Structures are given as structure tokens and as C-alpha cells.
Amino acid sequence: MADLIGLIWAGIISGCLYAMGAIGIVLIYKSSNVVNFAHGNLAGLSAFLVFGFTAGLFAEMAWGAAVLLTLVIMVAVMAVSYLLIAPLVFKSDLTSTIATLGVGLLAQGVTQLLFGSSVVALDLPLPSWRARLGPLHITAYDLAVLGTTMLAIGVLYLLIERTRIGIAFRAVSANPFASRVCGLSLRRVHLFSWVTAGLLGLVASLLIVPTTFLSSTSVASFMLQAFAAAVVGGFNSLPGAIVGGIFIGVIMNLLSFYLAAEFNNTYLLLTMLVVLNIFPKGLLAVRGGLRV
């Protein structure tokens, strides 16, 4: 029982990371019907930028200043990424989705050009605090992931529920045609979702890297679980992305421990197949509006 509780706890922590990645994917899909396959590579580029600003490659800045500077840069990067596919978004969902693969390869190429193909380490500035609560081993990293995820979700909720751009996002997500007739700028809403997704990707990648390593492909590989979380939760549901992330994190931890860890990708695929056969549109799917 102690092992089971510990595994569930670790799965929830991993699931928070998957959820933040999945929210970025769902945000873009809800506003534009585009599945952004570049999300992982763009998040990886942002983590490398923080590394470059803290490790002396570009500068030797404090960690917080490096993150703030990278946030500003990522706003510009996400805006340029959207502008690259913007002409395609209103013509074909499939074509614009395929175009994101090109954007992802471009981001990966820029990462390798600037930072090479070496594997580097990027740790969070966290204390080595840890505590035991019954069968749970809680670390400062666990609390940082939980706190950051809750903060990010809370800020995103206020942004969508309490601001004009958030209201426009909800309107476009529900019915883009009616939103356009009413005078809302779809491109502005698309840009909002891309920039917000990029910033969430930066936060998620900074939390992911301490659990593994940083290379030009490591964050993109990790984002496969985020993609699975979006599929399981429902591609058009933000709460579904959170539920899907936690579900994927817990189920993957349990299967890896009780069966065999080397079949993780197989478990991921089987989980998606089983869930989609029972819930074809995901666990918390909601009805979307008509495409313009």
C-alpha cells in the first residue's frame, strides 16, 4: 500500500507537468482548430534560452532575470511562429496543422544552431528540503511543481474569465463564425492563444528538465505525454487537459512500476486507445462551434 500511495503521488507530480503542456496544446486547438506539433520544440528552445542566459553562453544572469528575459523573447518567438502559419489557418485545418511540424523543425534547427547537440543540465534554484508524511516522500521540487501548476491554472482562469481577450477567446472557441460576424478579430485571439501556450511551455520545460536532462529533443519527447493528456482529456476542454495530465501521470507510473518500464510508449498508446474507445472525444469533451 505504501508503494501504491507513493506511486500515485509521484504520478500526480508528473501529471501536473503533462497538464501544463496539454493546456498549451488545447488553447491553440480551441481557438483555431490547429494541433500544434511544434509545442515541444518551442518549449525546448525556451529552456535552452534560460540555460544560455545563466550558464555564461550569452550572459551570466541571475536565474529570475534570465527567466523574465526569456519570457519576453518567447512572446516574440510565438508571435512569429503564429505569423508563419497564419495565412493557412483560415484555409485548411489539416494544412495549418502540418505546417506546425515545419515550425517545430525550424525551432529544433535554431536550438541546435545556437546550442549544439550536446546534453546539458539545467537545475532549478530550489533548496534540498525533503520530508516524510506517512508513506509520502515530499521534496521541495514536488511542492514547486504543485504550486507553480496551481498558480498557472489560477492566472489562466482569471485571464479567460475576467478579461476582454479572455471573453473573446471563449466566444471564438464556442462559435468562430458568430464571433467574426460580431466584429471580433480571430487573428488577435489566435495570437493570444499562441503566446499564452508558449509561456506555459516555458514554465513546463523549466520544471521538466530537472527530472531528466536538456537536449534539443528531450523536451519534445516529454511533450508526447502532454499530447496524450490532451487527447485523453478532450482536445477542446481546458479542464480536460488538467484531468488528462493527472490521469496519464498516475497510470503511467503504476504500469511502469508493476509491469515493465521499458514499454512506456506502448502503455501510452494503449491508454489512449482504451479511453478513446469508451469516450471518443475525451473524458471531458465539450461541444465546439462551427469553423469559419
TrEMBL record:
Just give the chief location class.
membrane
Q: Where is the signal peptide?
A: none
Pfam families assigned to the protein according to its UniProt record, in alphabetical order = BPD_transp_2
- Domain of life here? Bacteria
Give the keywords, sorted: Amino-acid transport, Cell membrane, Membrane, Transmembrane, Transmembrane helix, Transport
CDD domains on file: TM_PBP1_LivH_like
GO terms for CC? plasma membrane
One GO BP annotation of this record: amino acid transport
Q: How does it sit in the membrane?
A: Multi-pass membrane protein
GO molecular function of the protein, one example? transmembrane transporter activity
Report the transmembrane regions from the record. 6-29, 41-59, 65-86, 98-120, 140-160, 189-209, 267-286
The cellular location(s) given in this protein's UniProt record come to: Cell membrane
The entry's family comment says: Belongs to the binding-protein-dependent transport system permease family. LivHM subfamily.
Which protein is depicted? Branched-chain amino acid ABC transporter permease
State the organism of origin.
Pigmentiphaga aceris
